[in-house]
Prior knowledge:
By secondary structure, this protein is mostly beta strands. Helices cover 11% and strands 40% of the residues. It contains 2 helices and 6 strands; from the N terminus they run ββββββαα. It has helices at residues 94-98, 110-118; strands at residues 9-12, 18-26, 29-37, 43-52, 55-64, 70-77. It has a 6-stranded antiparallel sheet with strand order 1-2-3-4-5-6, with no helix packed on it. It is elongated, with a radius of gyration of 21 Å. The protein starts with 8 loop residues before the first strand and ends in a 6-residue tail after the last helix.
Amino acid sequence: MPDLTEAGKVETHADGSKTFTHGHRYPDNTQIVTQNYAPDGQLLSAKVEWSGFAGKVMDVAATFDKDGNLVKEDGFRAEGMTTPVKALLKPLPAAEAQAKPAAPAEDHSLAEGLKKIYGQQKHD
C-alpha cells in the first residue's frame, strides 16, 4: 500500500494526466482514495478502498462525466454502506490544479542530431 497522509500524493504522468491518492490509516480503519484526472484537469474516475475492524467496507471504482456527475459505479459495498463516492473525494491541491502539463520532450536521437547538423539530404 502506498504511504498515505491526509494531504495526499499527486503523480503527474507523461501525457499531463494526474493521479491523486489520499486517505488515512488507523489501526482499525484504512481508507485509500485514488482520483484520476485528464490533462485538462477534468475528473475521470475514482477508486475507493475502505476497510474497518470488521473487514472490507467498500471497494468501488467510479467513472464521471465532464460535469463531474457519477456515471457508473462497480465493486463491493458492505451492507448498509451508503456513503457516496463523491463525498470521499478531495479537490486537487491548489499547486497541482494550476500546474500546466510539461511540454513534450525533444527528440534527442542520433538521427535527429545529424539532421540538425547536416540538414535533410535529398536522394534522386
